[in-house]
């Protein structure tokens, strides 16, 4: 009986501390003018800058960073022409949807994966017809999905590096110290 009473008091104290913490966080967010950052359901991700991959590549190129040349197709016919222009036996096609985990997603057309390697202009046209104008569903977007209006095509890179920083403006620090959403989401979802 005494142990049960002790644990009840411990649970009540932890609940109170948790409530006080959230109250303090909400008050701080409001004082800093970060409306929408916190609500009754907890932390909310607020994206103020979202760029498609091809846009990021253009910005890097303008800044003098060496990036592989990519082309954007807005139709299957454009995808065919670009694949011919690239002139490689292996062309990488990437759905341009603002979401993480595109490679593991599924299109409403049934196509699995938003990142594909194609081996001919004809295959580029066929694959792009299942991407462009269709919704891509990923873990991040869930049932809502995201429409793919274009695909990035480039010579298939044998290797590439990934660099990203997720910043939380209200406290001027990284919000995820462990890696990308898909890496952490698969291994340690509590860290997101």
TrEMBL record:
Listed GO CC annotations: mitochondrion; succinate-CoA ligase complex
InterPro entries, per the entry: ATP-grasp_succ-CoA_synth-type (IPR013650), ATP_grasp_subdomain_1 (IPR013815)
Domain ATP-grasp fold succinyl-CoA synthetase-type: residue ranges: 51-172
Protein keywords: Signal
Signal sequence residues: 1-31
Gene Ontology MF annotations: ATP binding; succinate-CoA ligase (ADP-forming) activity
Residues annotated as transmembrane: none
Gene Ontology biological process terms, A to Z: succinyl-CoA metabolic process; tricarboxylic acid cycle
The protein, known as: ATP-grasp fold succinyl-CoA synthetase-type domain-containing protein
Organism the protein comes from: Pan paniscus
Lineage of origin: Eukaryota, Metazoa, Chordata, Craniata, Vertebrata
